[in-house]
Amino acid sequence: MSWMLKIEDVSKMYRLGLVNSASLQDDFKRAWYKLKGKEDPFLKIGEENKRDSKGGEYIWALRDINFEVKQGEVLGIIGKNGAGKSTLLKLLSKVTKPTTGSIKTKGRIASLLEVGTGFHPELTGKENIFLNGAILGMKKHEIKKKYDEIVDFSGCERYIDTPVKRYSSGMYVRLAFAVAAHLEPEILVVDEVLAVGDADFQKKAIGKMKDVSQGQGRTVLFVSHNMASIKSLCNKGIVLNNGRIDYYGTSNEAINNYFSSKSKLKSKGIIPTEFKRYNTGEIKIKKIELLNSNNIITDEIPYKKDIKIRIELDCFKKIENLLIDVKIVSKDGIIITDSILNIGEKNSVSVEEGTHNFEVTIENLFQPGNYSLTIGAHYRNGKSIDILENIYDFSVLNVGEYNNKDYIFEWVHGWISPKSNWKKINI
User: Which class for 408: exposed (0-12), middle (13-18), buried (19 or more C-beta within 10 A)?
Assistant: First the structure.
């Protein structure tokens, strides 16, 4: 099967802090080097795109990217926020050009990168179908042929003669996706805009992309943080990290690589300073420990045995109404339960400046498998102070006290509501 898309040594550099690419002096220097047939001098000073480090004004958003996608393949592109996923899709869609390297494609590319990209807010939904179709390179008679299918798929028939500026964001994305998916591109590029749509539309969109790839033999590139969608739709996967490819292979292995690389806890649960987190500076969670029934630190919990988590945090000022929450995330990246601090009749506490320790015991209703913890500290009004996403990987083992009645090996999808018990402790 021949390739439809080939990426060779692609890199993209940006200059931070300024709208223009350089000063007049830099432009003259760049032009002089080009006239002499030399490499752009500013490419030598670019730094790796680490979001949590300080450095110069030039960074590589992407660096030395190489891969190819064959006809009929669905490639999932995953990575944390800022890893370079959207930059890569913009290069593939020719929104911007690579600094170095080449991108080779066969056939027409249809892109859905942001909600309503290519739509004019003053035009009606019908007019935008024809406008967006023309932008994608379709003839008017081709758009007319597909028009009824597009409108039916989008579910916006009642509003099709209404200006799209009056559409909700969900209606925007439904119509935009319907146009991109029905105008028969050889390559369909989809960013995670489908998260805007409701559950029924997301299911319909995933089904359409499967039909486009498997039924029509077209190529799809799909970016999402929803690992269940990646696993269901994609047969290949790429993991991006700081603008470089960490892994390229099957989608299942890409998901495993993504999760295994995200847990960064050092010995005894101490959180490394380089871990990327959201933090306002008022509180800092500095240690997380997961304990078994013998109070031994572990990352493996037997089936049906309670999960005990200890959290140590430093408070740098007095905080009224502090909330702490512990989310358990499935291997597909879906939050399946959320335990919020609850001591006595209060679901928040007041803490003085200093070090504080909390412990929560969560009833283990989880099937054997791999999970991770996301832990956050917040004000009661919802404002976040410190968030650590997927900071602690652990497994529920298929051993323990069980009988044939309650020990069922099957994945249960959806929200789980276990009992949990919080307390403030002294260590």
Answer: exposed
Instruction: State if pTM tops 0.70.
Output: no
Report the C-alpha gap between 420 and 309 in whole angstroms: 11
Rounded CA-CA distance 400/305 in Å is 8
Phi–psi pair at 288, nearest 5 degrees: -135, 130
Q: What pLDDT digit, counting tens, does each position of 376-403 carry?
A: 999 988 889 999 988 888 888 775 444 4
- pLDDT tens-digit map of 79-133: 877 788 888 988 888 888 898 899 998 887 877 776 556 788 899 999 999 988 8
